[in-house]
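tool_call predict_complex ligand=pyridoxal-5'-phosphate
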Amino acid sequence: MTIWKPSLQRGKARYLAIVDALADDIASGKVDTGSRLPTQRDLALRLGVSVGTVTRAYAVAEQRGLIRGETGRGTFVGTAPPEELPIGDLGDSVRGSVNLGMTWPLESENPDLAPTLRKLARRPDLAELLRYQPNTGTTRHREAGAEWIARHGFEVPAECVAITAGTQHALTVVLSTLARPGETILTEDLTYPGLRAVADFLGLKLAGVPVDDEGLLPDALDSLCRQRKPAALYCVPSIQNPTATVMPNDRRETIARIAKRHGLRIVEDAIHHRLLDDPPHPIASIAPEFTYFLAGPSKTVAGGLRVAWVAAPRGAIERLAQRTWATTWMVPPLTAEIFAEWIDDGTAEATLERKRSEAAARVALLRSALPDADVTCAPAGYHAWLRLPDAWDSGARFAEAAERRGVAVTPADAFWVGTGRPPAAVRISMSAPRTRATLAEGLERLAATLGDSPGIGRPIV
Ligand SMILES: Cc1ncc(COP(=O)(O)O)c(C=O)c1O
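tool_result ok
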C-alpha cells in the first residue's frame, strides 16, 4: 500500500485534506486496515506539498485513531492492539501484573469487523437498522437467535426467543420478571459476581446451594427449596464460573426433576457451553416449560456486540419485552444484524472454533505449568479453579501473595454466597493475556507463589 495517493479536496488546509482523504479511503475499503502508508517524504513528493504538511497530517490522523506509527517500521492503517487488555474492576493493584484475574474472552481471536461493516454499508435496506424495532428484536434477529440456541442442542421456535443486550442484561430482564424485591434466588454457592450486582439492583436475596465436582447438590437444592421458597434458581451447568465444573446429564435431569416438584423456575446461563466439544444436554432441553435459557455469544464470539438471546417458556416473552422496554427499549439493531450476518456467513462458527482451539492450547500451558496442583478445568475452558494446598488457608491471602509476584488471580471470596467461610481457592483465567507468552509468564509466577510460604502477609510499619 505504499503507493497510496489520495485525491485532495480543494478549499481546506492541505494537511486536513490528506487526513479526510485517508478517512474516506479507509471507510470505502480502498485502504485496508494493517496496510503500510507511504513515507512522509514520498507522499509529500507525490502530492507536491511540504514534508511538514504530511507530518502534520499523519499526526492528526494518529490522534483520530486512523493510523499508528511503529518505530523503525513505518506508518500503518488502524490502531495498535493494546499489549494487555484492560483490567477493569481489579483496578490499580494489578497494574503491571499479568492479568489472570478476568475472563476476557480471548479478544485477540475476535472476528474482523471491517468486511461485515463494508457489506452492510452496501445494503439497500441499511436505514432499517436506524428504526425503532419490536422490544424483543426483529423476526430475522430472533431467528438468528433460535439458530444460535439450536447449536447449543436446544431447538426452540423463534417466537420463544427474545434478544437482550448481553447476558448481564438478560439476567436483569429475566430475574425482574421472576422475583419481587425481598424474594430469594438460589444459585451455586460460588457464583458469577454479575449475579450479585443484579440481585443488589433488584433488591433480591441470594442463597448459595452447596456444590460438588458435578455441580449443584440435589439434596441441598431440595431442602433449600423447602426452607427458603425461592423465586428461581440461577445456575451455570456448563463450565461453571468460577469452579469450571460441567454438570453431567444425569445430574441435570435430577435438578430439573427437583425444580419441577417445587414449581421452581430455572435460569440456565450457557455462556461457556459451546466451548465444550461434546456438551451435555441443556437443562432447558429437558425442562423447556420452566427454564429460561441464556445463550450469550460474548465469550465465544465477541463481548463488545452486547447481544444475547433468551429462550423463554411459552407465554413469558411478553413480560420479557416489557422489561426490555423498561431498561433499554431494544437492543441496537445494528449489532444484532452484525451477529445475524455472522450466523449466516459462518463467522460465528469459525470464531468459536478459533477460540476453542486457542483455549485448548492455553489449558495445556496451565497443565504443564502447574502439574501437581489441584485444578479443575474444562479441556477448552477459559478459566480454571485452583484449590490451594493446606498451607494456604485463604484464597484472598494467596491472591495477595500472587499479586506481589506480579500476577492477578481472583479469590473464592469474590464469588462466595454460601454460609461460613469461602473455600481456600482461586480462579485462574487464561483468556485475558493477549499472547500465550504472557500467559506462560503469569503461570510461572503463579507456580512460584504456590511454592512460597504464606507467612504473615504484608509487612506493616
Ligand atoms: C457466567 C457468566 N454469565 C454472564 C456473563 C456476562 O456476559 P455478557 O457479556 O453477555 O453480559 C459472564 C461474564 O464473564 C459470565 O461469566
